[in-house]
Amino acid sequence: MPALPRFLDCAHSIFISYAHADNELNGQWVTDFAKEFSDDLSAELSRHKLDRPLPGVHLSEFNGPVAGDLGPQLAARVAGAFAMVVVVDRFYASSEWCLRELQYFKQQFGVDGLKQRLYLVALAEQPMAEVAARPAWRECFAGMDPVWVNFYSDDLRRRPVRVLRDDGVAPTSAFLDRFDPIRTDLVAKITADLATPAPVAPGARLVLAMGRPELEPALAALHEELRRHDAGAARLGPEVLMDRQALVQQLKDADTLVLPVNGGQPLVPTMPGGHLAALVRQWKKLGKPDEGLLLLDLSAVPAPVPADAEDLEFLQSLGRPRLDRDALLRLLFPPPPPGAGAGAPQPPVRPVRLYIESNQNEPWQWKLLGEQIRRRWDRLLGERQVKVPLSLRPSGLNVDQIDLFNLDDADGLILLWGQKEARSLLSQINLVEDRLTELAPAIVAYLSPPKPRPERAVPALGWQVLRFNQRDQPPPENLEPEADDERELTSFLSEVLDRTERRHGLRPEPA
Fold first, then answer.
1. Same domain, 234 and 110
2. Which of 171, 195, 219 is the last residue of a domain?
3. Over the stretch 109-130, which tens digit does the pLDDT of each residue have?
4. How wide is the angle at C-alpha 29 spanned by C-alphas 24 and 35, nearest 5°?
5. Same domain assignment for residues 15 and 163
6. 110 and 218: one domain?
7. Is the dihedral of CA 442, 448, 451, 456 positive or negative?
8. Do 180 and 215 sit in the same domain of this protein?
9. For residue 347, is it within any domain?
């Protein structure tokens, strides 16, 4: 079923389909109708702060060239509209182009579009019956009973009601009686669409940073190579260095950031390390692990301006090895082991993501819990005889920054329940679940102390609560699961691994 277009993605608010001869026959009735619709939409939607001009009303009379194949351009204009209005009078039923516009609309919008985004206007009674008898019309509305809005008068003449009064300043009351229900319905649908958040596309997990100008050809070629292995691999442009929000958007879902270097003076030379330091700083502010930073050695490309000593010191301070192009590709996309069949499933290139809450009340606990998780994860991989790297993400469930993260890419979720009240915990669970289209395996880590050991099961909206005992605080030096919950923690990690193996094709989906 085709997805209905979003209003702000449309080139036109309405596509009005009609026969040019009908417009001439009725004294430019369709032209006046379109102007009223355009003026009313502008007024009704003026309170919405749109970041682009309001999509205009498109009349099918103006469909582009006067020669050649009109079909593709006509289809594109129909597809670029939020809704369609069909105006039927004497000449519409005999127009092949008008019926083709309706067919294009159904192809692009589907049955939902016919029901929700199509308005049928009749200027006379007989043409309405004639067009409904056409095979193309019957095929389009097979099994449906389309709704008509009659814009002809109730007297014996049955002529179209006039759009404008004699003074040409305002519409007639007879016109408004028929027009208002259409306008009200369409405005309500546009308003609801504007109020609905746009779906968040999954971000890139592999990001190639910008480099000096002389590195451009090598980076363009490398990006193409990366995309052959990972179609979602992204490349940063220098413009994001001046736009923090854009940079955060690019990095928020990444596991790996590749920093190209060739011994040249970095861009933005106002701080030691230049643009490289700016990228690393934002990477760390987002809670990304240091092992996700990879240095790409392009020293074979000469640098016109050698880097200053403080810039070289910054690179040295990162403590990350320099990889040439081939070594980088082998690290990111390891070849299959010797003897493995061509069709044998391989472990996922990107690591499993386990989001652990990090907050100001329990500043060390996520790291201590992560140590317990990693030890059990390595043991589980040994038992399963698979290699699936683990990426522990400390700030993915930071409520203060939750809008920066796409939680749908989480393979597992852990909330800490230490000093927060039960009501706050349930509120936080709701906040997390509201940002998910599919809930990954999830638990609540119940810390004791400061929380006393519960005497009975604690409800948490379906999230399993596991108890962990903090030793030797403050600050705690260890965080161990209670003996009764040891098996449940391993079971949680098994669920994470099972889900990962299914998603990456390492095991079949359950029947």
1. no
2. 195
3. 989 999 999 999 999 999 999 9
4. 125
5. yes
6. no
7. positive
8. no
9. no
Same domain for 397 and 324? no
Nearest C-alpha neighbor of 85 from the set 21, 158, 149: 149
Which residues partner with 56 through β-bridges? 12
* 212 or 48: which leads in pLDDT: 212
Computed over its alpha carbons, how large is the radius of gyration of the chain?
31
Question: 87 pLDDT exceeds 90?
Answer: yes
Strands 442-448 and 464-471 come out as parallel
pLDDT of residue 417: 85
Using CB atoms within 10 Å of the CB of residue 469, give its burial: 0 to 12 exposed, 13 to 18 middle, 19+ buried.
Answer: middle
- Mark whether 453 and 495 lie in a shared domain: yes
Domain that holds residue 291: 206-331
Q: Are residues 186 and 227 in the same domain?
A: no
pTM: predicted TM-score of the whole model, two decimal places: 0.46
Q: Based on the structure, what is the number of domains in the chain?
A: 3
Last residue of a domain, one of 142, 176, 195: 195
Give the Cβ contact number of residue 97 at 10 Å: 14
Question: For the sheet containing 118-122, what is the strand order?
Answer: 56-59, 12-17, 81-88, 118-122, 148-150
The answer to the question of residue 494 being in a domain is yes
CATH for 188: 3.40.50.10140
Most trustworthy range by pLDDT among 29-38, 368-377, 436-445, 474-483: 29-38
Query: What does the alpha-carbon distance between residue 113 and residue 9 come to, in Å, rounded to a whole number?
Result: 16
Beta strands 56-59 and 12-17 are parallel
Q: What is the pLDDT of residues 69-79, one digit of tens each?
A: 445 667 778 88
Q: Are the beta carbons of 97 and 107 closer than 8 angstroms?
A: no
In 3D, which of 366, 354, 365, 507 has the Cα closest to residue 441? 354
Give me the CATH number covering residue 254.
3.40.50
Residue 511 domain flag:
no
Give the model's confidence band at 277: pLDDT under 50 very low, under 70 low, under 90 confident, else very high: very high
Q: If you average pLDDT over every residue of the chain, what do you get?
A: 83
CB atoms < 10 A from the CB of 290, how many? Answer: 11
Report phi then psi at 6, rounded to 5: -80, 150
Q: Looking at the structure, tell me whether residues 312 and 445 fall in a common domain.
A: no
Integer CA distances (angstroms), 354 to 16, 351, 373, 432, 457, in order = 51, 9, 9, 14, 24
pLDDT band at 382 (very low <50, low <70, confident <90, very high): confident
Domain assignment present for residue 173? The answer is yes
Distances (CA, A) of 248 to 177, 251, 253, 279: 51, 5, 9, 10
